[in-house]
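Standup notes, protein team

Yesterday: finished cleaning the Streptomyces scopuliridis set.
Today: Endonuclease III structure.
Blockers: none.

Input for Endonuclease III:
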Amino acid sequence: MGEQPSAKRKKAAKGSTVKPVKAAAKSATKTAAKAATAAKPTAKPAAKPESHLAMVRRARRINRELAEVYPYAHPELDFRNPFELLVATVLSAQTTDLRVNQTTPAVFAKYPTPEDMAAAVPEELEEAIRPTGFFRAKAKSLIGLSTALRDRFDGEVPGRLEDLVSLPGVGRKTANVVLGNAFGVPGLTVDTHFGRLVRRWKWTEQEDPEKVEAEIAAIFPKSEWTMLSHRVIFHGRRICHSRKPACGACPIAHLCPSYGEGETDPEKARKLLKYEMGGYPGQRLSPPADYPGKPAPARIE
């Protein structure tokens, strides 16, 4: 039998084992604590709400940059005079401008003046405008407004908002389209595209078109209203679509608080572009001379 270690040697041996284990455990605890601290996400300070002044500045910058993107922005309804624009705008409700432009040549050939349209046989007018949808209600409005133009305005389209909105089937949106593009009177056209985009850009939270119009009118000089409408609507139709905005191809993405709602991949986003931005025809059969896209087809598809 070998010699038994002394109690002192046993204690020393035990101590030499325990101390490193304790030290290692303590070190591991510290390491784990550091790792946990490092893994814990650092809370970012909440972004300050945008002030009204900052929003106005951003809105005006968006307008300036859209002016560079769409220097050729224009109304996308074909017309030759105020009456044709009024009729085309009424027909554009709940359909595309392209469909209206493909329909109105025959309509204007048959009913060139308010007097002619006021005397129209309802069923014949309904058939002529059928491709635009809701043709019975639209025919009633067209005959009503034409009769009012004949009887109250000597067959001429008036150039005042209060007179235009007194016509059957004519609201503020239609009146502003006619005033801005047939008479040169500034007006904001709050259609579905315009309303959608100004809310995405946080210019307003309003849903009611008249309230939207009032709030946006307060942001921009009156001289900008008509062209602002064209630029915003152009952008909504070409890039900032309702269901899938082409965020990755948007020239004002750096100014948009809603960036990321749509496709952010540049290549995929480019495939979403419409009309001239995507290399396709526009909506007008007879576009302005400076329009860079192709004329729309005259045939209704």
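Follow-up from PR in the comments: Residues 213 and 222 are 12 Å apart (CA to CA).
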